[in-house]
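Q: My labmate handed me this sequence with no annotations at all. I'd like to see what the chain might look like in three dimensions before we decide whether it's worth expressing. Could you predict it?
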Amino acid sequence: MHTREAVNSEFVKALDTQRLREHFLIERVFVPGEMSMVYSHVDRMIVGGITPTSVPLALPVSKELGTDFFLERREMGIINIGGSGAIEVEGIRHQLGPREAFYISMGTKNVVFLSENPNEPAKFYFNSAPAHRACQTRRVTLDQAKHVEMGSDAECNKRVINQYIHPAVLETCQLVMGMTMFYEGNVWNTMPAHTHERRMEVYLYFDMPEDRVVFHFMGKPEETRHIVVRNEQAVISPSWSIHSGVGTGKYTFIWGMAGENQAFTDMDAVPMAV
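A: Here is what I predict for the chain of 274 residues:
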């Protein structure tokens, strides 16, 4: 578990490229045979990757949380972007294929992650947020997600927003997660840009070859910065920051949010005319 302290917008203005990356970019999310976790002080979100190979991996007891078990006061959303795998929750095994999601309720003690084929391991990407009530633990397939078409070829942002862990699909305490997929030839996400002071957000970019990058834009709308992001890297976005990106080719990204509400459309658009 690596801890990232929260930083304010005035402090960010003085950061050079390397320090910007140190505060907001998670460069290595998936490590074969290991769990990788970043504990952000921004809304207490934990972001991580779980990549079991020949040995199952169990959620640990973490000193950083100050609780008897990981999900004692937390909920967790997971999307598998690797090979087929399974999650054992309180001894019950749930299969989780590629592009499928899983929600685990607050109060769940025993959680174990497995891969069906160690040579093609599952890559369980997760977001975990504080919770104050229990909800139903369940799997959500891509077909079960709510699909929202947005953008156009003319604007280079034609995409499908797949809402997995979302009030329209299942009940959670505060966590919201989904996966956005682009049509060929489209590279802009979330443009025109926006902020939502009520929620923080985390992006995981993937489905990119080695020589492809995404320029992720962040910062106050009137003074932006950018971070170059490569395949299977994540970016933490504070509530005060825009979060938009453009790739050198098509890509996919997973978004996760936590904060005051779960209203996906509750955002403050940034006019492109100013």
